[in-house]
Amino acid sequence: MKRRHVEELFIKILMFFSFMFVAGSLGAILITVVVKGLPALSWQMISQVPKGGYYLGKEGGILNAIVGSLYLATGATILSFIFGLPIALYMETYARKSTRANLVRLALDVLWGIPSIVYGAFGFIIMLALGIKASLLGGIIVLALLELPIMTRAMDEVIRLTPFEIEAASYALGATRFETAVKVVVRQMLPGIITAIMLAFGRAIGDAASVLFVAGYTDRMPTSLFRPVASLPLAVFFQLGTPYPEVQQRAYASALILTVIVLIISLGSRWLSSRINRYVVK
Amino acid sequence: MDTHIEIRNLNVFYGDSQALKDVNLEIPKQQITVIMGPSGCGKTTLLKSLNRFLELTDSTQLKGEVLIDGADIYAPGVDVTEIRTKTGLLAQRPFPLPMSIFDNVAYGLRLHGMCKKGCSLDDRVEHYLKEAGLWDEVKDRLHKPATGLSIGQQQRLCLARGLAVEPEILLGDEPTSALDPISAQHIEKRLLELKHNYTIVLVTHILRQARRLADYVIFMYLGEVVEAGLAHEVFDNPKMERTRDYLSGQF
Description:
heterodimer; A: 282 residues; B: 251 residues
């Protein structure tokens, strides 16, 4: 065998093992969650709020956390989208390769790397200063901060793949930069936008540390933006922290619910983006 | 000769390098003007100076005047979108917009609100698709993605899209270079028909295409205009030695 073929073989084996490592990790997590969580999962768990003594193993469910998490993540995703899309479009259409755009990118990358507990602590300090209590709104805002760099950079990367000639074609027809951004660039990157939203949503719904301080926890259903709200990651955390095996099992069931929500959203957005994909110019 | 575009003392720089040197030209109305020359001679730069496309690239500097119908398009206060609406552009490779065939043609019409009361968008789109010679091939799939068309069809779609904003001038930057011979012929045929209503400026490096299409020829070399004049004069009786060398295929 020649050196080049050995090289080729080596790389192939390496790729196979990296794939197995990634797929294996995902599989191991899924299997653990399903095996440990499925026996404890019941209709009661997803249709009821915790009753007295729930954390001691008595009756009830975690509907409050399911709904709370959906509210938190959806609100945060909407909020960060409102800020993220214009930033991404600005960087592509107006600032392009300028120093300013690169500074924005750098700032977003740094924000991306900041651990979520720091966002939580940051939000907490601000809330203390303003005299606000832990609430759904606080959670949404802090999670939006956490999502913003992820969503914006993901969209930015997709927008940068847009061939400039498509924009040029629009300019040639007498369109302004704004019209081109909104009517052409957004359509071209729609599948990418959906992926970016999904990525950010998945990150937000699974994050426990940032909501720990700012959203609080409650056994009630969320009814107001200004009241504390429960969330699934914290539900997992609290249940796993009890000394009772049956409650610990419910923690795995809660984790299973969280995983299924992320899975549904992930697959749904894939389906959606493949539907709109057909207009994209490659 | 009825002048449509006049270029006066045009100098263009990309950073430190000069792409166009003291260009002075008159481009006739409703005829096909072909810009020829070896690669890197400034053909495309000259073309892009006519619809203010150069400013889309950073670090481009332009001095001089380009007058369309006697008005300088680089004068302060000129609306760049108006200039670009006046000039249609066919690029080297067709790039449809990420939407359906119908919406591609309707894009400009909607943008400029050109189809208001008493106007049927369907009719306008059909009209321009016919003008670009594409209607028969796409009439049954108007709402399918434009990317499903062949490259040749896409270029005619780009033509229809450009015509729809009712420009006076059509610019072509080697518009057939990415096309197969038959599609290229289609485009050439269209251009010959369209010249009765539009001033057409084409960049090409295909000498035979230039001979087939040109009424008026501009020959460029290293950023300068070497020779410009009526096509038959330049082709049959070039005054400058460089032009003669180029026409005989020496570079």
